[in-house]
Amino acid sequence: MKTQARFLMLAALVLGLAMSASAQAYNLKSPIAGKPVFLTSAGQSADIEMVKVLLDRSKIPYKTDGQAKGGALKAALSKSLLIAIGGSSKGLGAAGISTEAELARVKEVIAEARKLGLKIIGVHVGGEARRGELSDAFIMAVVPLCDYVIVVAEGNKDGLFTKLCAQAKIPLDSVDKISKVVEPLTKSFQ
Length: 190
Prior knowledge:
It is a single chain. By secondary structure, this protein is an alpha/beta fold. It has one domain (27-187): Rossmann fold. Helix content is 46%, strand content 16%. It is built from eight helices and six strands; from the N terminus they run αβαβαβααβαβαβα. Strands 2-1-3-4-5-6 form a six-stranded parallel beta sheet, with helices on both faces. β1 (37-42), α2 (47-58) and β2 form a beta-alpha-beta unit. The radius of gyration is 19 Å and the shape is globular.
């Protein structure tokens, strides 16, 4: 009888440890954003397409315009703003926009979101491959203006997201791969 009781206690302990190891704790403790979300890009990278897939998997309703300008959020009746952060010289060239003009456009959209009282979530899914001088310009401009940031860990190897979020007191959640963005993203919406 004692052996069976010990076994059951040990099994419960192992199961509890396994469950806690698989469940990641997130820094954002409760939902902050409303639906539908408006998705735009900061840097014209292809990451916006990956974020669309994540929103579809999360079943979060959204409207998107990678080149949205001021007025787009109000017209779309959006309740929050999601920004895919990652610069691409190829994407900027295809859009016919300079880095400076893209930064101004994104800041205009963020200003509209603030005016409308919308929460702003920044997402960087490009990992280390989407880092560098161009992306960093967008990261440094956008992250401090967000209410919450999610990053794929490889994209934060140098701690830039950690530093920017700590300075601005913004919750930051890091995941080990793109597909894992779904969980914290879903939990951020009411």
